[in-house]
Amino acid sequence: MTVLRKSLRLYLVTDPQLCASRGVIDTVRCAVSGGVSMVQLRDKSAQTHERVELARAIKKALSGSGVPLVINDDVDAAVAADVDGAHIGQGDLTPAQARARLGPDKILGLSCETAQTVQGADPSIVDYLGLGPVFGTATKTDHAAPIGFDGLARLVALSSLPAVAIGGLKAEHASAVLKSGADGLAVVSAICGQPDVAAAARAFSFQEGRA
Ligand code: TZP
Ligand code: MG
């Protein structure tokens, strides 16, 4: 298994509102102590300079952990903060544009909700896919129709790229997600804002172990 596939196993997507009580940096620290293997900084309302500042602080908190950090939507912030990469959606700049700005060595993730977009993702440009939403979720209000585990398995089978599932995922879904062929679970609300963030992350690792 590639290093990236392993990193995708338990992928934390941060949400500033849900992380408000302990803050994003402390949330990341606790989540990684509980087994989170990759982190995406996602803050739709921040400006680039704010994302850069926060990303630098998260990067410092993650140093030595081997846990990659990517920034959602904002390739310029990812370059400025010199994090491990960026994650983009279909409405953002194109993967080719993102790759050109990131350079060849950074991680580039792409969200896909349909067979067409999965098949259109070029493995020479994109490193991994974010697939979903598996279930409906209040965390992202403008999401597409949920695809379920069957839809997830169909999308995973259409690409050779590593893939992480997202959308309404909780610890008890870990084994079904992995059985669908995805490399891991991307999670917001089941970890961010939970009273015990490390325990919430550990619950996923426990379920994965049973997969
Ligand atoms: N993209 C598709 S669903 C989603 C994103 C960012 C949010 C997932 O949040 P949660 O709380 O894990 O359901
Ligand atoms: Mg986006």
UniProtKB/TrEMBL annotation:
Q: Name the cofactor(s) required for activity, per the record.
A: Mg(2+)
Quote the EC number: 2.5.1.3
Q: Which reaction does it catalyse?
A: 4-methyl-5-(2-phosphooxyethyl)-thiazole + 4-amino-2-methyl-5-(diphosphooxymethyl)pyrimidine + H(+) = thiamine phosphate + diphosphate; 2-(2-carboxy-4-methylthiazol-5-yl)ethyl phosphate + 4-amino-2-methyl-5-(diphosphooxymethyl)pyrimidine + 2 H(+) = thiamine phosphate + CO2 + diphosphate; 2-[(2R,5Z)-2-carboxy-4-methylthiazol-5(2H)-ylidene]ethyl phosphate + 4-amino-2-methyl-5-(diphosphooxymethyl)pyrimidine + 2 H(+) = thiamine phosphate + CO2 + diphosphate
Enzyme kind, highest EC tier: transferase
- Binding of 2-[(2R,5Z)-2-carboxy-4-methylthiazol-5(2H)-ylidene]ethyl phosphate occurs at 137-139, 168, 188-189
Give the pathway. Answer: Cofactor biosynthesis; thiamine diphosphate biosynthesis; thiamine phosphate from 4-amino-2-methyl-5-diphosphomethylpyrimidine and 4-methyl-5-(2-phosphoethyl)-thiazole: step 1/1
Q: Where does 4-amino-2-methyl-5-(diphosphooxymethyl)pyrimidine bind?
A: 40-44, 72, 111, 140
A Pfam family of the record is: TMP-TENI
Q: Name one GO cellular component term.
A: cytoplasm
Family label:
Belongs to the thiamine-phosphate synthase family.
Quote the HAMAP family the UniProt record gives: TMP_synthase
Q: What does this protein do?
A: Condenses 4-methyl-5-(beta-hydroxyethyl)thiazole monophosphate (THZ-P) and 2-methyl-4-amino-5-hydroxymethyl pyrimidine pyrophosphate (HMP-PP) to form thiamine monophosphate (TMP).
Return the protein name: Thiamine-phosphate synthase
Q: Which gene encodes it?
A: thiE
